[in-house]
Amino acid sequence: MEYLLFLAISFSASAVGAVCGIGGGVIIKPVLDLCGLAGVSEISFLSGCTVLAMSCCSVFKSLCSGESRVSFQTATPLAAGSAAGGVLGSQIFKLIRTMFGNQNAAGAVQAGCLAVITAGTLVYAVYKQRIRTYKVKSKAACLLIGAVLGLMSSFLGIGGGPINLVVLFFFFSMDTKAAAQNSLYIILFSQLANLLTTLVTRSVPQFGMGALVLMTAGGIGGGAAGRRINRKMDNKAVDRLLLCLTAVIICISIYNTWKYARLIF
C-alpha cells in the first residue's frame, strides 16, 4: 500500500507539474512530508530523482517532436547558473541538518521557507497583469538569476516549482506555456547537478529501492501525461490551475512546518 502511494503521488504531481512547468517536486516534497512516508533527507532525495527523470524525458520529447519553446540563449545560462546554485543549496541543507542535529528541524525550516516563497509567487501570479516585466539579455545576469533559482530549489528539495515561473514571467516576459517549457529545461540541469553532488560527496541517504523505482516511473509517466494535457489547454487555463495548486501547496507547507516544529520540542 505504501509503494502504491509513492507511485500515485509521483505520477499525479509530475503530470500537473508538466502542465504548469513546476516540475512536480514542489508537490511531491510537501505531500510526502504530510504523509510521513519517509525521513526528510530521503524525501528530498527521492523527490529530486523523480523530478530529474520527469524533466529529462519532457525536455527530450519536446525537442524531438519539434514542439519545444525553449529559448536556449536565455535558458542555457539560466540552467548553468542553476546547476551551480543547486550544488550550493544542497550543501546549505546539509549544513542546517548537521547544525541542528535533527531532521525534524531541517524539515521545519524547509517547509516554512517553502510556504513563504510560494505565498510570494501566489501574490505575484494574482497581480501579474499589473506588474511591469522585463526582457533581460545579459548572460551574466542570467547566470546570477539562475544561481539563485538553483540554490532555493535545491535547498527546498523541490526542483524549481512556481519560483522558476515567476522569474521567467518577470525578468524575461514569457507567457505561461513558454515559461513552463523553459522552467523544465532549467530544472533538468539543477537537479542533475544536485544528484551528482550527492553521489560525489557520498551523502546519499538510506532509501527503499522499490520507492525510487516506482517514483521515477511515476515521474516519467506523469510527465508524458502532462505534456498531452498541456497541448489541449490555453494559457488562461494553465494560469488557473497554477493558482489553485499554489494555494494548496501553501496550506500543506504551513501544516508541515507546524508538524515538524512540534516534533522538535
How would you concisely characterize the structure shown here?
With 265 residues, the chain is mainly α.
Question: Care to describe what's here?
Answer:
By secondary structure, the protein is mostly helical. It has one domain. Helix content is 82%, strand content 0%. The chain has helices at residues 2-20, 25-35, 40-65, 72-100, 103-127, 139-156, 161-172, 176-200, 209-231, 235-264. The longest helix has 30 residues, at 235-264. The protein starts with a helix and ends with a helix. 51% of the residues are buried. The model has no long low-confidence stretch (mean pLDDT 86).
The percent range for strand residues is under 5%
Structural class: mainly alpha
Global shape: globular
Distance between the termini: 31 Å
Count of helix runs: 10
Radius of gyration from the CA trace?
17 Å
Mean pLDDT: 86
Helices and strands, in N-to-C order?
HHHHHHHHHH
Low-confidence stretches at least 5 residues in length (pLDDT < 50)? none
Q: Profile the largest sheet.
A: none
Structurally, the number of domains stands at: 1
Count of β-strands: 0
Fraction in helix: over 70%
